[in-house]
Amino acid sequence: MDGPFGIALGLITSADAALMQIIGLSLRVTLTAVLIACVLGLPLGAGLALARFPGRAAVIVMFNALMGLPPVVAGLLVYLLLSRSGPFGDLGLLFTPTAMVIAQTLLILPIVISLTRSVVEDLWVEYREQLRSLGAGRLRAVPTLLWDGRVSLLTGVLAGFGRASAEVGAVLIVGGNIAGHTRTMTTAITLETARGSLGLAVALGIILMALTLTLNALAWGAGQWARGRLG
């Protein structure tokens, strides 16, 4: 079969080496960023939900606003930090996968923090008296509340994954779209489309859509399973 879709199917079915390398790098970068964002964001979001301190409302508003942080702004910030004239320029991280992980983490972290804060705050209001009767204060209640809200939190994590995996601007600025080194699915689609090499672009688009649909199906299935058990 001729045309972009025929070429794309041929690349996918033959497990083209260049295609697999791009997909592998994209998944490594995005999954690493999601993991870091979860490790940092879940406890920070839970702490923000349960703690009471001056300026708390302003912090909540700030993280809610950062959920819509433009990717190019995140990329520019990381670029300024990692460039030769920046404070971390000596580390030599610019135009490396590590820089891309940092940029994507910056995009995902506010989503994880804000969603965790909302979920934990609602659960604390619902179970506060019961938890206190069992001797669990705010700090000791955090693991229980996170576990109880795991399905809702999974949805937020997947939203963060989707935002990072579909992002172009930030990884292009800090990664440079270097073939075999920092070229991800989204930056490769942009480049190959501009070149008129639609076969590879379509193949990557199909893989990206299939990945997104699979993750959302798993999240929906997990939600249905959890509701069935609770029901």
Overall description:
With 231 residues, the chain is mainly α. The protein has one domain (23-184): MetI-like fold (Orthogonal Bundle), CATH 1.10.3720.10. It is 79% helix and 0% strand. It is built from ten helices and no strands. The longest helix has 37 residues, at 97-133. It is globular and about 70 Å long. The N and C termini lie far apart (50 Å). The model has no long low-confidence stretch (mean pLDDT 86).
Element layout with pairings:
Blueprint: H1 3-13, H2 17-50, H3 56-66, H4 71-82, H5 97-133, H6 138-148, H7 150-165, H8 169-175, H9 185-195, H10 198-230
Quick tags:
MetI-like fold; globular
| Helical residue percent band | over 70%
β content, as a range? Answer: under 5%
CATH fold title: MetI-like fold
| Count of the domains | 1
Summarize the biggest pleated sheet. Answer: none
CATH H-tier superfamily: MetI-like
Order of helices and strands: HHHHHHHHHH
Summarize the structure.
With 231 residues, the chain is mainly α. It has helices at 3-13, 17-50, 56-66, 71-82, 97-133, 138-148, 150-165, 169-175, 185-195, 198-230.
